[in-house]
Amino acid sequence: MNNVQLIKKMSDTKSLITCNDKYFVISESDRLGYETLVFPADDDGKIESWLDVAGGQGMTPDQVMEAIRQNGVRSWDD
Known about the structure:
The chain is mainly beta. The chain contains one helix and five strands, in the order E-E-E-E-E-H.
């Protein structure tokens, strides 16, 4: 199980979290149907890559955090 913690709520739609000592921004959107995506970030919440590493359509931030706890985040290094 991965260690996931909410660091701070950055706005109504964005939160900064950590997972195993790495930082991520959880971003909610309802532009094309409700979805919550997770992006790598620095410790200030600045997004470092727009390739999402977790989340999906119809997921709440709490569901995404639980999925990360259970499964970790995707890696695009392959």
